[in-house]
Specification:
The complex is a heterodimer. By secondary structure, chain A is an all-alpha fold. Chain A is built from 10 helices and 2 strands; from the N terminus they run H-H-H-H-H-H-E-E-H-H-H-H. Chain A is globular, with a radius of gyration of 20 Å. The chains are: A mainly alpha, B alpha/beta.
């Protein structure tokens, strides 16, 4: 028995396997995949690329912009909604099933469980972003010409450099919801009703964006977790403007630290009565 | 002394607001025993179990489990404890086997190389091998209860804490669960089993503790608890008044009608009744059943089976 080594990361593997074996997870990823498909088909069928969300106009010239347009459309609502569902479900979902008590007496360890749950929520956020970008690039390449990409600054870059920018973009957009996921985790420790935690998380995402759109609250804007969500356009300039990237990373890290600490404070000593 | 006790609590108390759910209880569960933890619904059994397992923090009092102080040693003690708390719980969208895999991977000390074989062995032991790949939401209540027990059996345990393990089971399922519990002690494990249904665990237990309204009202080896309280003699006679006089003259404590606690040999009672001319149609000696003892201890509202 002693020759076999215990694997402390088994719970993380189990969490990811459980998350991605759920039909609900695939339904949400499927819905997100529909966004770029819908955009690409709509633009292709009507051949009109004027007006509408950012980057829409470029699609007919370059299919790769389907991914950018889809992100612009998804970030305010669809992405926060699906991320809210997963993050809000983390602890509250286990509590409502009753499995939380069994995980804790296994014993999973409360801090370890919290970390694993957060990692699962973050993994979903990254998967969600990847789905939008990859499906967007795929359908764009299928329906539209692919050529040198004209950046917002007017320069053109080739496919190779575009790939680098796309990876940076995925990193940026995957970074953005980390703060929201931490908020969802914290809310999730406060209830045994997962739907409540999911709704509260999604509502907060909307509220943050509304506050961000009110000029009267401009002093608050740099502190809102959604403030840099749409700032990925800077990655399409030459040279790349890194300000938003760095500030976004710092802001999200701050939210993760603060709400991670709150979640820990709440969960570490909480009486589990579910 | 504490080394011989699998569980020992001293002054264990849990308050929810003003309500004392568990009020200063001193449990002493000997190693190797099957310890019945009895009491009506709402008497504090599950709260006590939650405190033992570190799910709920005690308001005051001490817990020692397997010789270590809790909840400080939770991480090192719980891997040796298999538990069922307030009914089994599963991910309905996972199969029975996947549920057990997930549960086992939650224990950071569990060895992944042997996980598959341990899960299969646990499923086999509770008779669920054939249904292992069905989704848990398709399980009947009895199958869920068994799957819950299988979760407690994933590793070698020194102590089992089973909260209402026969809840919701049909008589056959109850018998099977009893069989499983018996087999646990064969490996030398201690079993702490709670129930509000006395008859379901009476035949199983070597020790018993009785809770009532958050307090521990009795505790000890089951034979000792049975011995407390005398048997009763019940006389069937039309001459009730005269019979009561005779019984009282023998120094017996009278009960209802012509019955009394039996503190002298029964033949002496018979002789005295006949000598006094009481027409005796029947005379029975009734030992006090454990059930009567529980009713006496826990008072009204005790939820007795059948």
């Amino acid at each position: 028995m002693s020759q076999a080594r215990p694997r402390p990361f088994a719970l993380l593997g189990s969490e990811l396997a459980t998350l991605f074996r759920r039909r609900r997870t695939w339904a949400m990823l499927g819905a997100l995949a529909l966004v770029p498909i819908l955009i690409a088909v709509a633009v292709r069928v009507t051949s009109s690329g004027s007006g509408g969300p950012a980057f829409l106009g470029q699609i007919t010239h370059n299919g790769l912009f389907v991914a950018f347009t889809a992100l612009t459309v998804s970030i305010p609502l669809f992405l926060p909604l699906t991320i809210g569902v997963v993050a809000g479900d983390t602890i509250a979902g286990e509590a409502s099933l009753g499995t939380l008590r069994y995980l804790l007496i296994a014993p999973a360890g409360r801090i370890r469980l919290l970390l694993v749950k957060y990692a699962g929520a973050a993994a979903f956020a990254i998967a969600a972003v990847l789905v939008v970008v990859l499906v967007g690039v795929g359908i764009g390449a299928l329906l539209f010409p692919i050529g040198p990409v004209t950046l917002l600054s007017g320069d053109s870059i080739g496919g190779g450099e575009f790939a680098v920018r796309a990876i940076l973009l995925v990193g940026y957009v995957a970074l953005s919801p980390l703060g929201l996921s931490a908020i969802g985790l914290f809310i999730s420790t406060m209830t045994t009703v997962p739907v409540g935690a999911m709704a509260a998380t999604a509502v907060l995402a909307a509220a943050s964006q509304i506050a961000d759109s009110l000029p009267q609250l401009d002093w608050l804007h740099p502190w809102l977790f959604s403030h840099y969500w749409l700032g990925f356009g800077d990655l399409l300039r030459n040279p790349i403007v890194w300000d938003a990237y760095g500030q976004n990373a710092l802001l999200q890290l701050g939210y993760v630290v603060v709400f991670g600490a709150l979640a820990y404070g709440r969960f570490a000593t909480k009486d589990i009565l579910s | 002394m504490s080394a011989e006790l699998a569980i020992r609590t001293e002054g264990l108390t849990k308050r929810f607001g003003h309500q004392r759910a568990v009020d200063s209880i001193d449990l002493a569960v000997p190693r190797g025993s099957v310890f019945g933890f009895l009491g009506p619904n709402g008497s504090g059994k599950t709260t006590t179990i939650r405190m033992l397992l570190g799910l709920v923090s005690a308001t005051s009092g001490d817990i020692r489990m397997l010789g270590e102080s809790m909840p400080g040693a939770l991480a090192s003690v719980l891997p040796h404890v298999g538990a069922l708390v307030e009914g089994p719980a599963f991910y309905p969208f996972l199969s029975g086997r996947s549920n057990l895999h997930r549960l086992d991977s939650a224990d950071r000390h569990s060895v992944s190389a042997t996980r598959g074989s341990r899960v299969d062995a646990a499923l086999d032991r509770v008779g669920l091998s054939a249904a292992a790949d069905k989704k848990a939401h398709a399980y009947s209540l009895g199958m869920k209860q068994r799957l819950g027990l299988a979760g407690a059996l994933l590793a070698r345990r020194e102590l089992f804490i089973l909260d209402e393990p026969t809840n919701g089971l049909d008589p056959q399922g109850t018998r099977e669960v009893r069989g499983i519990i018996r087999s646990l002690t064969d490996d030398g494990a201690t079993v702490f089993v709670s129930s509000h249904l006395l008859t379901e665990i009476e035949q199983l237990c070597s020790h018993v503790a009785i809770m009532s309204a958050g307090r521990l009202v009795a505790q000890g080896p089951i034979d000792e608890l049975r011995r407390v309280g005398n048997p009763r003699v019940v006389v069937r006679t039309p001459d009730t008044a005269e019979a009561r006089r005779v019984l009282a003259s023998l120094g017996l404590t009278l009960g209802e009608a012509a019955s009394a606690e039996l503190t002298v040999p029964s033949e002496q009672v018979t002789a005295a009744l006949v000598a006094a001319g009481v027409r005796v149609r029947g005379l029975t000696v009734e030992g006090q059943t454990l059930e009567e003892r529980f009713v006496a201890l826990t008072g009204e509202g005790f939820d007795v089976a059948g």
